[in-house]
Write a structure and sequence with these properties.
Helix content is about 20%, strand content about 40%. By secondary structure, the protein is of the alpha+beta class. The two termini are about 25 Å apart. The site of zinc ion (ZN) has 8 residues, from loops.
């Protein structure tokens, strides 16, 4: 019995909103990542922020990335990306759990869209009896596992639920299959012939 090991990597494609009180709007408001960094000299040290804007009134909010850091502690390549307002770096920091926690920022992670990179071609696997998919979710996006498996294998959610109940789809994190994906890494295994039993 041979098992193909494959990997799906969850790649976010947009920044989460941050919900916070807006003093100008006088209520909780959605703040949007502008993709712009601000680097300020503070004595011999630097402060680096990622700039957000209230969706209604454009009031800005600075998400702190570095506070009073010695310039030589910032990698040169990263420093240049701050100055260039690098889009990918702004996306990464908008999802950085440590940065969000440090700022006590309430990010709306379940509105983040994503693509799945990796081998998702499930046809033409006759030489294997089963496939183990390792799912890497580096930003711990809350994604329903059932929905993810169903859409990737092109099965209905009720069918996937049944296959799990029957022990045909298995996982080393079986208790997580009905939850949202919150783990950085988990896996599931299915026999290749389930694709014939739609
Ligand atoms: Zn506002």
């Amino acid at each position: 019995m041979s098992c193909l090991l494959t990997q799906w990597r969850i790649i976010p494609t947009n920044s989460p909103l941050i919900i916070r009180n807006c003093s100008k709007c006088g209520q909780k408001s959605e703040y949007i990542n502008t993709g712009n960094f601000r680097v300020n000299a503070n004595g011999n040290n630097l402060d680096v922020w990622l700039i957000y804007q209230c969706n209604k009134c454009k009031t800005t909010y600075n998400l702190s990335i570095y506070e009073r850091i010695s310039p030589n502690k910032i990698p040169k390549s990263e420093y240049e990306k701050f100055l260039a307002n690098d889009i990918d770096l702004a996306l990464q920091y908008s999802l950085n759990k440590d940065v969000l926690r440090k700022n006590k920022a309430q990010a709306v992670l379940d509105m983040v869209e994503f693509v799945i990179a990796g081998d998702t071609a499930m046809e033409g696997l006759p030489q294997h009896n089963s496939v183990t998919v390792e799912i890497i979710n580096p930003y711990n996006l809350p994604i329903r596992t059932l929905r993810l498996i169903a859409s990737q294998l092109n099965l209905s959610r009720s069918k996937v639920r049944k296959l799990i109940e029957q022990g045909i789809i298995t996982s080393s994190n079986i208790n997580d299959l009905n939850k949202k994906v919150i783990n950085n890494k988990w896996d599931f295994t299915y026999p290749t012939n389930i694709l014939d039993t739609k």
